[in-house]
Amino acid sequence: MAESVELPTRLAILPFRNKVLLPGAIIRIRCTSPSSVKLVEQELWQKEEKGLIGILPVRDALEIKSAGTTTTTASQVVAKMKMSNGDSDNGGSQAAVVEGQVKVYGVKCGARRGWLMAMVEDVVGTDILDQSSKLQDGSSDSLKSDTKKQNDIVHWHNRGVAARPLHLSRGVEKPSGRVTYTVVLEGLCRFSVLELSTRGIYHTARISSLEMTKTEMEQIEQDRDYLMLSRQFKATAMELISLLELKQKTGGRTKVLLDNVPVHKLADIFVASFEISFEEQLSMLDSVGPKVRLSKATELVDRHLQSIRVAEKITQKVEGQLSKSQKEFLLRQQMRAIKEELGDNDDDEDDLVALERKMKSAGMPPNVWKHAHRELRRLKKMQPQQPGYNSSRVYLDLLADLPWQKASEEIELDLRAAQKRLDSDHYGLVKVKQRIIEYLAVRKLKPDARGPVLCFVGPPGVGKTSLASSIAAALGRKFIRISLGGVKDEADIRGHRRTYVGSMPGRLIDGLKRVAVCNPVMLLDEVDKTGSDARGDPASALLEVLDPEQNKTFNDHYLNVPFDLSKVIFVATANRMQPIPPPLLDRMEVIELPGYTPEEKLQIAMKHLIPRVLLQHGLSSAFIQIPEAMVKLIIQRYTREAGVRNLERNLAALARAAAVRVVEQEQVVPLNKGMKGISTPLLENRLADGTEVEMDLMPISVNSQDIANTFSVASLLVVDETMLEKVLGPPRFDDSEAAERVASPGVSVGLVWTAFGGEVQFVEATEMVGKGELHLTGQLGDVIKESAQIALTWVRARATDLRLDAAKGFNLLEGRDVHIHFPAGAVPKDGPSAGVTLVTSLVSLFTQKSVRSDTAMTGEMTLRGLVLPVGGVKDKILAAHRYGIKRVILPERNLKDLVEVPSSVLANLEILLAKRMEDVLEHAFDGGCPWRQHSKL
Ligand SMILES: Nc1ncnc2c1ncn2[C@@H]1O[C@H](COP(=O)(O)OP(=O)(O)OP(=O)(O)O)[C@@H](O)[C@H]1O
């Protein structure tokens, strides 16, 4: 940068339209107008030693008007302008000189300080400005080529900047041959115009420098105000430079300027690089005094700094968004390309469109639709990779899949047809079927009747599930089974809130989604198996489901919108009633299905199970015959259940074995013709092992009946005892079991009730040296343990009362421990009905007399020996029947329960009633109660 320069008294003047060149700035100007071309040619191009030229800002009349200046025009005069130096106002002084060719029509110093106005004519040509990022840009000529612009008034500023040419180049425009110049100028120092005149077609001015002398400068540098201002300026400038360097990641070159260039010059350099208004540029030009200039520059630099910071913030925001959306765009493009490559064209957008369409057709109620639509809008704004996208998508899918209105059309209910259907599906169960028909009849009369929920209670395999599905078939509705066995978490019924990771809807909503209609028959299977723990009480959630008042707006936590369950027909099943919470039981109508008698089982097997099993295995009665006698044997020897599930399983095992035989017969024929390699038929091998044949030979998608027909050449297989043993193995049960087990004293046979229905339970007691303690084993609950304690107490007390001792055949067991065991330890046992059995086994132990093996008993006993009635009598008697028991001892007050027991069973049993424990003992032992002679009966 040039140091202080000696200015000539006169300078050629290049007008700078609406722009200011400040000292220290560099501009490039392309001169095209005749006047400026002439000026450059004469003052710079043709001169050996390039001199200085003056750059004087000019302003259009319009601009000055808007800036609040009053203007006047004069008749054609050559203007000579005399302007005062310094910062003082020149308003009002006029000067007009005629020199050269430029005609100035009117001249008047503007009301605004430092401006001269002139009407200029004969202006041609335009200077085209070259712009460069490094160079300050501007127009070298105030005069435009348009003839329109002729006679425009231009306003010359009274201060300008002397400039030194740094580079000069000449060009010739091709078509016109016009000469143009491009000149790069560096602003050096301010000057004031004393007199403006013309030389040829361009202007010159008599000037005086506005630069301070060295002495003046030294003086001012001592000034405290100046020092403070310069420090302030430098700090602000430093801040700006640091910010810019940080932004542009440039080195510290600009900082060097701060140390080497005098601060008053720096002020100009800094301001020159800003894009500020013409007014502000002029004001900077007019700031001749260093203090004024510094404070002005500090203000401008600070403003620039702030604006950069604000811009920075905005840019960061915009960039953030931009880069994100660009990233998204890129990813989408890539995804599309991958999908195209894979031939999978349904991209996410299409996917969402399809989802929306599905949602629209789901028939959601308005409030649900509003909720779903809001969620969809949210989803649309998300990216597939975004967390939450998938869960939102799955959630909306569920909303769209749920049958909000879709219902299976209920067929006109024909009670006779329903009865026929129930009869064809199930043998017996007359009362149950009757109750179902009543239920259906009410529904026919009042379809929206809020009848009670039917609950089938009974042991496994008695047809609870199949009855429910028959109801659905009779009503022409879809059937769905919801298994509640082992459900301990309320969320299983109500779903998890969506805030949980891996949240899901509850089983009910999930079931409805699967069944896809809002009015199915829904079987709540095993309602007695729900438990409650810290995770809530599923039964209480079920209360809401089964309550017709509440289930209109069932609230699943996952779904988060109410779902109307009132059209669903609920049917429940349970093995036992006791575990069902009373409020829940209260909402249901319990229909008990006790176990089947062997005769009933036989009928069920012959009429329902065998035809169904054969069909399932692609067989028919042409291949296999299972005679009644064999079914009886299966019932007696292989199953001792209350229901028919095991019976069905055993029949299926026979059918599989027959299927293998049929297929092998078919294969054996051709093989035998040509080959001898295959020796033992597969069936023989398998049957010899006594294992069930587990092969599934049915080809998928081939109708099993077709296969049966294909193999119709095979010979008929009649199941006999040998085959039973081969396929099902040796018999699992036989009637001699009880006799064998009670042969030794201390064992008695009880009848109990478990989840599997009635069961025969043996009780074993033994004694050993000890301290008179009682030991109990075999998965016992508190009640049964108490019964054992009561039994022992009663027996000991009784023996003492009757003064029975070893001599009279009663061991009082002084100093000995008693151990009572309930075999089948894996099955939990509880309840008071084992009371009489426990006493009997203890009496048997103490008297060393065996209990009758054909006798089983049940009954609760008080401490005083009174026998109380018990529950589940029908099931217990059926169990005794199954086990081949011939005599059953029952509490007297259970007599009424015998009405329910099928007469076929009663015909085979001797029922003995007991009021007191002594009665039981009387019946349990051969020869009656072991101490009858002492008893006060
Ligand atoms: N009275 C009957 N007549 C014809 N088939 C029957 C009868 N009772 C049960 N079945 C058959 O026995 C099989 C088992 O019945 P189902 O599954 O309905 O028993 P469930 O009582 O529901 O058992 P769980 O309590 O284990 O669910 C079915 O194939 C069913 O058709």
UniProtKB/TrEMBL annotation:
<keyword id="KW-0067">ATP-binding</keyword>
<dbReference type="GO" id="GO:0004176">
    <property type="term" value="F:ATP-dependent peptidase activity"/>
</dbReference>
<dbReference type="Pfam" id="PF05362">
    <property type="entry name" value="Lon_C"/>
</dbReference>
<dbReference type="InterPro" id="IPR003593">
    <property type="entry name" value="AAA+_ATPase"/>
</dbReference>
<keyword id="KW-0576">Peroxisome</keyword>
<dbReference type="InterPro" id="IPR008269">
    <property type="entry name" value="Lon_proteolytic"/>
</dbReference>
<keyword id="KW-0547">Nucleotide-binding</keyword>
<dbReference type="GO" id="GO:0005782">
    <property type="term" value="C:peroxisomal matrix"/>
</dbReference>
<dbReference type="GO" id="GO:0006515">
    <property type="term" value="P:protein quality control for misfolded or incompletely synthesized proteins"/>
</dbReference>
<dbReference type="GO" id="GO:0004252">
    <property type="term" value="F:serine-type endopeptidase activity"/>
</dbReference>
<dbReference type="Pfam" id="PF00004">
    <property type="entry name" value="AAA"/>
</dbReference>
<keyword id="KW-0378">Hydrolase</keyword>
<dbReference type="InterPro" id="IPR027501">
    <property type="entry name" value="Lonp2_euk"/>
</dbReference>
<feature type="active site">
    <location>
        <position position="833"/>
    </location>
</feature>
<dbReference type="Pfam" id="PF02190">
    <property type="entry name" value="LON_substr_bdg"/>
</dbReference>
<dbReference type="InterPro" id="IPR003959">
    <property type="entry name" value="ATPase_AAA_core"/>
</dbReference>
<keyword id="KW-0645">Protease</keyword>
<dbReference type="Pfam" id="PF22667">
    <property type="entry name" value="Lon_lid"/>
</dbReference>
<dbReference type="InterPro" id="IPR027065">
    <property type="entry name" value="Lon_Prtase"/>
</dbReference>
<dbReference type="GO" id="GO:0016887">
    <property type="term" value="F:ATP hydrolysis activity"/>
</dbReference>
<feature type="active site">
    <location>
        <position position="876"/>
    </location>
</feature>
<dbReference type="InterPro" id="IPR046336">
    <property type="entry name" value="Lon_prtase_N_sf"/>
</dbReference>
<dbReference type="InterPro" id="IPR054594">
    <property type="entry name" value="Lon_lid"/>
</dbReference>
<protein>
    <recommendedName>
        <fullName>Lon protease homolog 2, peroxisomal</fullName>
        <ecNumber>3.4.21.-</ecNumber>
    </recommendedName>
</protein>
<comment type="function">
    <text>ATP-dependent serine protease that mediates the selective degradation of misfolded and unassembled polypeptides in the peroxisomal matrix. Necessary for type 2 peroxisome targeting signal (PTS2)-containing protein processing and facilitates peroxisome matrix protein import.</text>
</comment>
<dbReference type="InterPro" id="IPR003111">
    <property type="entry name" value="Lon_prtase_N"/>
</dbReference>
<dbReference type="InterPro" id="IPR004815">
    <property type="entry name" value="Lon_bac/euk-typ"/>
</dbReference>
<feature type="domain" description="Lon N-terminal">
    <location>
        <begin position="11"/>
        <end position="305"/>
    </location>
</feature>
<feature type="short sequence motif" description="Microbody targeting signal">
    <location>
        <begin position="935"/>
        <end position="937"/>
    </location>
</feature>
<dbReference type="GO" id="GO:0016558">
    <property type="term" value="P:protein import into peroxisome matrix"/>
</dbReference>
<dbReference type="InterPro" id="IPR020568">
    <property type="entry name" value="Ribosomal_Su5_D2-typ_SF"/>
</dbReference>
<dbReference type="InterPro" id="IPR014721">
    <property type="entry name" value="Ribsml_uS5_D2-typ_fold_subgr"/>
</dbReference>
<dbReference type="GO" id="GO:0005524">
    <property type="term" value="F:ATP binding"/>
</dbReference>
<dbReference type="GO" id="GO:0016485">
    <property type="term" value="P:protein processing"/>
</dbReference>
<dbReference type="InterPro" id="IPR027417">
    <property type="entry name" value="P-loop_NTPase"/>
</dbReference>
<feature type="binding site">
    <location>
        <begin position="458"/>
        <end position="465"/>
    </location>
    <ligand>
        <name>ATP</name>
    </ligand>
</feature>
<comment type="similarity">
    <text>Belongs to the peptidase S16 family.</text>
</comment>
<dbReference type="InterPro" id="IPR015947">
    <property type="entry name" value="PUA-like_sf"/>
</dbReference>
<dbReference type="InterPro" id="IPR008268">
    <property type="entry name" value="Peptidase_S16_AS"/>
</dbReference>
<feature type="domain" description="Lon proteolytic">
    <location>
        <begin position="742"/>
        <end position="927"/>
    </location>
</feature>
<keyword id="KW-0720">Serine protease</keyword>
